[in-house]
Each structure stands twice: as structure tokens, then as C-alpha cells.
Amino acid sequence: MPELPEVEIAARNVRRWARGRVIVDAIVSPSRVIRGQTAACVRKALVGRRVARVDRRGKWLRVVFDDDTRAFSHFGMSGRWVKRRPDDPEERSERLRLDLGDRSGRLVSLRYVDPRMFGRFIVAREDIAEFRALGPDPLVDDVDGATLARAIAGKRRTIKEVLMDQLVLAGIGNIQATDALFRARIDPRSRADRLTRADTTRLARAIRWSIDRTLALEEGPEITYVEDANAPNPFVVYGRGGAPCPRCRTQLLRVVLGGRTTVLCSSCQTRR
Ligand SMILES: [Zn+2]
Hints:
Layout lengths: L3 H15 L3 E7 L10 H8 L4 E7 L2 E6 L4 E5 L5 E5 L9 E8 L5 E7 L6 E5 L4 H4 L12 H8 L6 H5 L10 H10 L13 H22 L34 E5 L2 E5 L8
Antiparallel strand pairs: 1-6, 2-3, 3-4, 4-8, 5-7, 6-7, 9-10
Helix pairs in contact: 1-7, 4-7, 6-7
The structure holds zinc ion.
């Protein structure tokens, strides 16, 4: 499932493909992805607009246009943007298509593909509430141990669930939380408010390490997700329950926290 690194890679790609270009045509399917809006309204807001800026916060990608209209793209479980030529056929599960031209009239065609349709595409005149409510972003805001300690202060849920709360920290999902807690040697079942300052410093560094590692491994124009058929698992312990711990060879445990499967080493990771 896409988390911060996958959306960051998408933001870099869409920025490279679209910034400075004008949307000359948009084909908007009336799918669940645009729920609450009509396809005609979305199309009308987009056609003729020049892309001024592309950025990301948490798992949201934001495109700001020349008239300050914004488009917010969230990938849900299976969404992704791909670049095609305008005469290329429609993608399987294509929900949205933007054809963008540069000053010399050359066209690129960006397609939003989303088989499961948990993704969102929202056009608005200002930042949407879900975007404004996000907590600090580990890349954008360079979250250190002190920032992390403030963000989790007084939280009595497990640190794993707290890390995945987008209002506490933006962009961390099951994969990044599982690998970062392993790296920081903190048991994911620890209560967040019991972590020490040394723990939050280690954990903030581990989150950044895990994100940077994933970015380096996955960067490219066509992203695959670990759940995709035949996709490799590039993560350290995520999805590896039952396998030996890469550090001490103890068999990794699989536990469920907040309805999500998490993997840990009971020997390397300390419970607070
Ligand atoms: Zn271990």
C-alpha cells in the first residue's frame, strides 16, 4: 500500500512531467475516486490550467494551478500516476487522464490508475480539511526526536498505532512503522507515552532512515507496491513474520495491533 515514500516518488515524477505545462484535455471517469464531485465539474476546473507547483504532505499529493485552484490526489490502496503518450490506449483501471502540453505543443498524457478505487482526487479552491489536519511530515518538516516526543506526548495507545495516525505524524503507514520500530529496537506494543527521550530520538532517526532507504530502492517512473502480483518485498521485517530476525536470528513474531498485522523481534525490541 502506498505510504510516504511511494507518494514522494509520485510527487517527484508528476512535478517533472507536469510543472509548467497546461492541461489541454482531461478525461474524468465518474468513479468512486472523485466521490462528491461530478466528472463535468472536475474536468471544467482543470482544462486550460497551467501546473504551477506539485508538492506532497503525508500521503497526499497536491497540485497547485496558475489560478490557485488545487487538486489533491490520494492513492488509497492501489492508486498510481503513470506517464503515457497521448495516442497510447487507455490503461486497465484508468480513472482519470490529463493531457498536458508545453509551449511547443508537445503533449504528455498522465493517467491515474486505481484498481481498488480507495484513492481520491479532489479539486478545490483552497486546501482541503484532510490536508490541513495532517501532523508533521518526516521529510517536509524534518522531524527530530524533540518534535516526535511532542507529537506523541500523552498518547496512551501503542506506539505503532500512534505512528500510523496521520494527525500525529503524516505519511507513516504499516510498512514504515513496522520497519522503523525494528530499526529503533522498540517493541511496537509499547505505550507511546512510556517512550523515553532516547527512544524518540532513535525512533525519529529510524523513521528517516526507513523512508530514505525506501526512496532509494523504489525511485523510478513506474512504481510497484509490495502487494502487487509478483512484486518483491524490499522491506527489512515488514511481511516477514516467521522468518529469522535479520539481526539476531530469533523467529520474528506476527501480532495484530489496531487491526493491522505487525512484525517484531521479541529479543531485539524492548517493550516500554
Ligand atoms: Zn532480533
